[in-house]
Write a structure and sequence with these properties.
- By secondary structure, this protein is of the alpha/beta class.
- It has one domain: HAD superfamily/HAD-like (Rossmann fold).
- Helices cover 27% and strands 12% of the residues.
- Strands 3-2-1-4 form a 4-stranded parallel beta sheet, with helices on one face. The chain has a two-stranded antiparallel ribbon with strand order 5-6.
- The longest helix has 13 residues.
- The radius of gyration is 17 Å and the shape is globular.
Length: 142
């Protein structure tokens, strides 16, 4: 799948034009790429602010397929709208949000990850029993 991902309020807390604080997007975005999906940064940022967002992806070792464009789209349309199969954006209808006491709402990546797993877009995280001590297993039932 090609997945378009917003930046401010979606990958990080909203702090435009600065880069906001971490909200838990990195591990889920990495899982998407590891599952073979292509990510397009789909943001209102441009110029230096766009370059900073692209750098955030590089700094977090998350491969981007494109930034504010689908690189192959020009072969079949001249539309400026980024074509993707799925859009993850804090402004999207029904996206799960965290509403802090101060500041703007931002994406709840724990719920997004569970939804992506339920939809079969990313595999669930499996914990190997050899990584657990016996007392950890029994503590679950006490």
């Amino acid at each position: 799948m090609i997945i378009a991902v917003d930046f401010d309020g979606t990958c990080v807390k909203f702090a435009y034009p600065k880069i906001g604080e971490d909200i838990g997007a990195v591990p889920v975005l990495k899982r998407l790429v590891q599952a073979g999906h292509q990510l397009i940064l789909n943001t209102m940022r441009d110029g230096d602010e766009l370059a900073q967002a692209v750098q955030w992806f590089k700094d977090n070792n998350i491969e981007l397929y494109g930034a504010n464009q689908n690189p192959t789209q020009h072969t079949w349309t001249t539309s400026p709208k980024v074509y993707a199969h799925l859009y993850i954006d804090d402004a999207a209808l029904c996206i799960p949000l965290i509403h802090p006491k101060v500041g703007r709402p931002y994406v709840d990546w724990e719920i997004v990850a569970a939804e992506l797993e339920d939809m079969g877009i990313i595999p669930p995280i499996m914990i190997a029993f050899e990584d657990c001590k016996p007392e950890d297993f029994f503590d679950m039932f006490n």
